[in-house]
Amino acid sequence: MHIITSVLVAALLGQAPVLAHPGEDLRHEANLRRHYLSLQANNLDHCAEAFEAEGLHRRTINRRATRVAELGGSLDNLYRRQAPKITSSHKGSQGYKLDTDPKVVFAGNNNCVLTPEVTEGPFFVQGQDIRGTIVEKEIGVPLHLDFQLIDVTTCKPLKDVYIELWNVNATGVYSGAISPVNGIASDTSNLDRTFLRSVQKTDANGVVQFSTNFPGYYASRATHMHVMTHLNGVPKANNTMWDLSATYAGQLFFDQDFINAIEKLDLYSKNRQSKTKNETLTADSYVEYVTLGDKVDLNNGLFGWYRLGVNPTYNWTIMAAAQRLKEGGKIKTGNLGAGVLFLGGFPTYAPGAGGAPAPKPTKGL
Ligand SMILES: *[C@@H]1O[C@H](CO)[C@@H](O)[C@H](O)[C@H]1NC(C)=O
Ligand SMILES: *[C@@H]1O[C@H](CO)[C@@H](O)[C@H](O)[C@H]1NC(C)=O
Ligand SMILES: *[C@@H]1O[C@H](CO)[C@@H](O)[C@H](O)[C@H]1NC(C)=O
Ligand SMILES: *[C@@H]1O[C@H](CO)[C@@H](O)[C@H](O)[C@H]1NC(C)=O
Description:
Elements: H1 7-13, H2 27-38, H3 48-53, H4 56-70, E1 78-79, E2 95-96, H5 102-106, E3 111-113, E4 125-126, E5 128-129, E6 142-151, E7 162-166, E8 197-201, E9 207-213, E10 224-230, E11 240-241, E12 247-253, H6 256-263, H7 266-269, E13 288-291, E14 302-310, E15 316-318, E16 322-325, E17 328-331, E18 349-351
Parallel strand pairs: 3-14, 4-16, 6-14
Antiparallel strand pairs: 1-2, 5-11, 6-9, 7-8, 7-10, 10-12, 13-14, 15-18, 16-17
This protein binds 2-acetamido-2-deoxy-beta-D-glucopyranose (4 copies).
One 2-acetamido-2-deoxy-beta-D-glucopyranose is lined by residues 127, 236, 238, 240, 324-326.
Domain Intradiol ring-cleavage dioxygenases: 122-222
GO molecular function: ferric iron binding; oxidoreductase activity, acting on single donors with incorporation of molecular oxygen, incorporation of two atoms of oxygen
Keywords: Dioxygenase, Oxidoreductase, Signal
């Protein structure tokens, strides 16, 4: 978990927030997330009819199929996860062929609702470029993503919203951050790196597409990616995003079977950090995917998709671990002096001034 400044959160926990470190369990974070989700819809299942009625579902299927074709996927031997169970492997046994109806392949409605304050991980770096291709020179399994952002209160896509994505490279290192748990801590040039981070604006269907690499692992968290929304974000003249308000954050995960397969690849197997297997999740935060190429070879990469829900009536503010400036990266040591354990500092959270009131604590956390 992270250092959380909010009085609300301290009250929810019934104790002063404590400094956490890798290896510590994430139960508090999971409890906070559960609490927030208990106050409102925790998935988009109630939107299924609206999606059909507005043709959103049909457009989604077409868009995903088109993207796979663009990526050189032959649509032969697509290998898709099945069985949307949270507790078991999603590995699919079914092989899809060229003539498989795209409706069958891409109809998955996997989704989760992002929370305003708690599921954020460390290493959020403010000031990233608005761009779709974020791999730079990193080597890894290409991961092409299609995200759709939906307002849980109206079931409508949210257009012109900026979505931020960041993940570690194949050996589990974040760019833009320095910490004993992030690669070689003495390599201060990592602060200036920007790989596998970016921000993009949703289109009329609430969609953004990113091309990143499949993440490696690092201590204490299962293999994941971070996503965050900037509901009213306005880019700077140099096309970077600095917005810290109305941020909804979440982590997306992958099937353990699939992670195991990726970790057998040379590049990923060089990672010497400790490994955490999949966490116990309360929502289906697993990216749905197909492998690309004309045979199942992970090196060809994959195409993944996911729907993200947010409730835009809550407004919170996030603090960054570091900033990316023209002259290079800069650690935000002011953030609660977390520099003792994490030179980069953990991001911290406080309810935004203005906006809707924070959710009221209830019993049964
Ligand atoms: C991940 O990034 C770190 C820092 O730049 C670098 O030392 C490491 O070699 C990278 N891993 C791979 C697989 O390139
Ligand atoms: C999570 O890990 C457990 C234990 O290895 C495994 O049984 C289960 O299938 C995994 N779940 C997913 C979604 O991969
Ligand atoms: C982009 O613009 C902001 C605000 O003007 C500035 O602080 C930042 O250093 C610039 N970033 C880059 C990478 O040039
Ligand atoms: C959230 O609150 C901040 C500070 O009052 C304000 O600048 C921002 O526009 C608000 N965002 C939304 C989406 O209401």
